[in-house]
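Researcher: Please predict.
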Amino acid sequence: MLFTKRKVFLGALLLVTVLLFLPIVSCYAKEDVSSHINPNIILIMADDQGWGQTGYYHHPILKTPNLDAMAANGLRFDRFYASPLCSPTRASVLTGRTNDRTGVLSHGYALRLQEKTLAKALKSKGYSTGHFGKWHLNGLRGPGVPIFEDDTHSPARFGFDEWLSISNFFDINPILSDNGTFKEFKGDSSAIIVNEALKFIAAQKKNKKPFFVVIWDGSPHRPWMASDADRKPFERLDSKSQNHYGELVAFDRSVGALRKGVRDLGIANNTLIWFNSDNGGLPGIKPDTVGGLRDYKNSIWEGGLRVPAVIEWPAAINARVTKYPASTMDIFPTIVDILDLPDSVMLKPIDGISLKPLFVNDFAKRKEPIPFRVGSKGALIDNNYKLVTENIESETFELYDLKHDPQEVRNISKNNPKIFEHMKYVFMEWNKSVDASLVGNDYPKRIVNVDEPPPQQLWENDKRYKPFIDKWKKRPEYSEHLRSKPLGVKAIVTTLVIVVVVIVICVFVYVKYISRHNKSIQPEVK
């Protein structure tokens, strides 16, 4: 009897010990996996999805069950940041550097070939690499068009083995470039690129190769063309908002298809999927897109920079929500850290940091601030404090406490002079380093190649696309863009000013000529 009681006691003690230490063991097991097993990596990015446009942020009408499920199973960032414009964000993802360092000053600028990219780094580790969807790093502007095989700045030039890509935004029934071959597809664009990406992924699994897949969606960017079924839940909204939210429904469904496809292939446990949007939400859409934050896309306020983001990696990440500030510039250094790649695969200086330690444990403070520079605007995010300027040259800054004032209403610079002056100094010193990068100081010969970047232009002005214009102008995504438009008010005023100046110059020259001529024929007075 005593023996039996002792067995029961020892058994109970063992059970309690296991229960107490199981979470700790679990954490260390996950950390070990992230250190020693090369995960498959998928980056999926929406186009113009605002911070407030997810179900998990309690949007009043939009339901995103697949993003919600991903967030519940992964690391959800409540403070994740991207550039306020699309091309600059894409440059930061591929390089870990702020966009101006790479030559991508705004949307439609080409990424310099001298930059070191994430795709090239992973190829050096034996990964197969694929790009699917929007590219927008080859210098072309206007609605998305398929990219030529010989394009000097195609995805292939930056390390992608295979690509099904388009220069800019795209919608239903798109024309995409399959490694340079133009192909017409039928159906929803989000579903198409995810399905094609899954084919690539299945092939890599069959070949027993790790893969790096970039899926850059075209939704919910204009011109907003959702299916009738996806628009139906929003039929009380205006037409633009109906289609905008309908595209988000389709995008969320494609996220579900991607996650299911990876599970069905039996590789979900060691596949890292990183979701985020490329910039803040859009104005003029109802209900609002930014979840009550200030301003929208193309601004350096929170509504322009803060975006939804989730990292899912079952083998290595403890599912939870973090308020740790992070950005798209952190993606490259994080993956370098996971794979233990040499620092030499990244071009210095890098503006992001590794988020790998965050996968298991949360941290109270970020050690390095998050800087932004787009055009004349700039911002520096240092944990809860944010420095903002609309004009860098003027050195006119404002300071906000995002913890107590996420809407950026109260400028606290006068009440916090030490913090304000320190952040101004840090930003301006960083700004000088960006100026140095812009002129080529980071490259081996400390110069920018003479042919870099290629001229930024509307694609219809590229002679290679001339044979396609007559056919494409009938397509809905191109018809408005290619339709001849009357001169706008600004153009008319500019033209009139030029005409008036020319007339004034002509009159002045004529009067001078007449005056001189009259003097030459005037009789001499004696």
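Model: Confidence is low (pLDDT under 50) at residues 1-29, 31-36, 485-491.
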